[in-house]
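User: Before I run my own analysis I want an independent prediction to cross-check against. Here's the chain; please return only the structure tokens and, at the end, one sentence I can use as a sanity check.
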Amino acid sequence: MTTSPAVPARWTADDIPDQTGRTILVTGANSGLGYVTARELARRGAHVVLTARNADKGRAALDRLRGELTEPSLELRTLDLADLRSVHDFADTFDAPVDVLVNNAGIMMPPRTLTKQGFESQFATNHLGHFALTGLLLERLRTGSDPRVVTVTSTLHKNGTIHYDDLDGERSYSPRAFYAQSKYANVLFGLELDRRLRTSAVQVRSVLAHPGYSATNLQSSGPTGLLKAILRVTNRLVAQDVETGALNQLYAAAAPQARSGQFIGPDGRNEAKGHPTLVQPVESATDPEAARRLWDLSEQLTGVRYDFTDTGGR
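Assistant: Structure tokens:
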């Protein structure tokens, strides 16, 4: 795993270099971390493609951004990462080069639900959808300028494991455990993508980021009952604001110093708050064999197979 160069101390959005001429795709950009990420990159001149599952919410976010920024270059596309058909349709109709793909969208700790393809919703949305999207857009990324894939995970990945014998929670489901599973999968994926890109000498960076404990609508839109009430209180009393939380993925997406294989998170105690710094994943997530097992399963479940050698097609 890459550990240098170091992140500049107290890096902020003001340190984002000019992004004019770059196309940056941000999933889940209608609110929270994705919204701030889209706004700050557009503010620096990037053409930002926002994706949203709900078209009305996406249009509301687009209107809000246009009100906050001066002549931003923005585009809105509908994308439901929980539905692999939607992911394929999106990729089939997206023909422009991509300089940065920010895999930001996610859901957190809902009751057990299955997607149209029959997968547990958190694993499907947070991991499988982004795995498929990245693979389908890899050709577009290869033609980009200083191309990057930013995978947004969570500190809860440290509590995660892949439940290969009960992947969809049919026998035993815990909202928190299956959220941790999906975030653990994000880390396995981001690090394995880096390995495969390096091995094949493909000039695309794979960078990981997590926001610490940041107050977003994830804590209110997914959980139910007592868990939702608890998270509502901790959001007010403990969490940092979303503007600070988004700095980690902004650094991964735009900082010249960011290197493939790096993991960016807050510099405060327990990585809960603070400015971007280099952090370490849980040790088990650095195991190449574990990553290869998940990669092979993800290709099987999504039907998307990465081609790191042939640039002539997907």
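Sanity check: Residues 154 and 210 are 5 Å apart (CA to CA).
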